[in-house]
Amino acid sequence: MSRRSSRNIVLSLAAAALGIAFLVPAPSYAAGAQSGKPDQAAAAAPAAPDAQQAMAAYAKLAAPGPQHQRLASLVGTWKVTGKGWMAPGQPPSEMTGVNTATAIMGGRYIQSVHSGSFMGMKFEGRETDGYDNVTHEYWATWMDSMGTGVTVSRGTCDDPCKTLTETGDEVDPMTGKTQKNRIVTTFVDADTYTMQMYMVGGAPDGGDFKMMELTAKRQK
User: Fold this and answer.
1) Residue-wise over 44-76: b if at least 16 C-beta within 10 A, else e?
2) Closest to 90 in 3D by CA, of 211, 219, 220
3) What string of pLDDT tens digits covers the 220 residues of the chain?
4) Integer Cα distance of 216 and 186 in angstroms
5) Are 97 and 146 spatial neighbours (Cβ–Cβ below 8 Å)?
6) 192-197 contact pairs (CB < 8 A, 24+)
7) Residue 108: which residues within 8 A CB-CB, separation 6 or more?
8) Is the pTM of this model over 0.85?
9) Rounded to whole angstroms, what are the CA distances from 75 to 94, 111, 159, 189, 217?
């Protein structure tokens, strides 16, 4: 069982317990009733939440919505081509690969496996994309064969969600310092999307330095 599924079960049980707890009178309330005195504390207490209402609210937050349907357009097999820059002013290196994306957990998340080559080396990356109904943010995790860490990015998409912009922090392996990256994904059409990745403030003039640009074409 995963940590997330365990968390869901715990929260569900907690919601049910919350309803039960509010049905049991506290000792001070009971004492007031036995003495025949008005229980002002009980009268001032807020109404107890209904366990079924709490469960219904939680189920609504856990249900996939239109944002998850938008991410579902990433499902499929894609041919990816692009360029990557190691530093400002240096010539780019060509990138090629294949990305296979599938929907998991009832469409709540999109899981992608990237394989290809970069700078003459084989490359593998794994990505998970989602939308958090609680924080109202798109998010993505990324890990690859060129490192041992994970990058978490969060952001928003314009209406009607043609350009998705996310930012995240990662540690520069050369300096050991944390740097902020910005990833811009543009949904060009049903069979094409592009992605640009920038190092925020990484250009010599203080602007953003483009580290990568990719174009993905649907194969199936």
Assistant:
1) eeeeeeebeebeeeeeeeeebeebbebbebbbb
2) 211
3) 444 444 444 344 333 333 333 333 333 333 343 445 555 555 555 655 688 998 998 899 999 999 999 999 999 999 999 999 999 999 999 999 999 999 999 999 999 999 998 878 898 999 999 999 999 999 999 999 988 999 999 999 998 899 999 999 988 888 888 999 999 999 999 999 999 999 999 999 999 999 999 999 999 8
4) 10
5) no
6) 192/216, 192/217, 192/218, 193/74, 195/82
7) 62, 64, 68, 130
8) no
9) 25, 9, 21, 14, 12
Residue 130 corresponds to which tokens in the numbers above?
A: 């989602």
With respect to CATH, is domain 67-218 assigned 2.40.128.20? Answer: yes
**Where in the chain do CATH 2.40.128.20 domains reside?**
67-218
CA–CA distance, 42 with 132 (Å, rounded to integer): 37
Dihedral sign (CA 156, 11, 48, 35): negative
Q: How many CA atoms lie within 13 A of 19 on its CB side?
A: 13
Tokens of 132: 């958090």
